[in-house]
């Protein structure tokens, strides 16, 4: 069973790592993703009020020009797994 097809824990979210996007793509801003994932981890620890809709509707800015952030597909896959976990 893959990490994305099971219930996620706060520790899973805290330990998530993402690749850089392909050359020519900027991806998602790292700080914005990291800050949001801290909120997600708090929620999974039972200390936050984030809903599945909040996760589903989040948007991240691009990193500054000439910098590459996190691969969008990898971040989106984790967020899909978070939504599935929150909807259980």
TrEMBL record:
Question: What broad class describes the main subcellular location of this protein?
Answer: cytoplasm
Gene3D superfamilies found in the cross-reference section: 6.10.250.660
Report keywords, A-Z. Answer: Cell cycle, Cell division, Cell shape, Coiled coil, Cytoplasm
The cellular component terms of Gene Ontology attached to this UniProt record, alphabetical and capped at eight, are:
cytoplasm
Q: Extract one GO BP annotation from the record.
A: regulation of cell shape
Compartments annotated for it: namely:
Cytoplasm
The entry sums up its family as follows: Belongs to the DivIVA family.
> What name has this protein been given in UniProt?
Cell wall synthesis protein Wag31
Native organism taxonomy: Bacteria, Bacillati, Actinomycetota, Actinomycetes, Mycobacteriales
């Amino acid at each position: 069973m893959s990490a994305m097809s099971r219930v996620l824990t706060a520790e899973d979210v805290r330990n998530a790592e993402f690749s850089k996007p392909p050359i020519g793509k900027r991806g998602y801003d790292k700080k914005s993703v990291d800050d949001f994932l801290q909120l997600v981890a708090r929620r999974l620890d039972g200390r936050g009020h984030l809903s599945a809709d909040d996760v589903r509707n989040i948007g991240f800015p691009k990193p500054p020009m000439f910098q590459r952030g996190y691969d969008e597909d990898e971040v989106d896959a984790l967020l899909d797994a978070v939504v599935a976990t929150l909807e259980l």
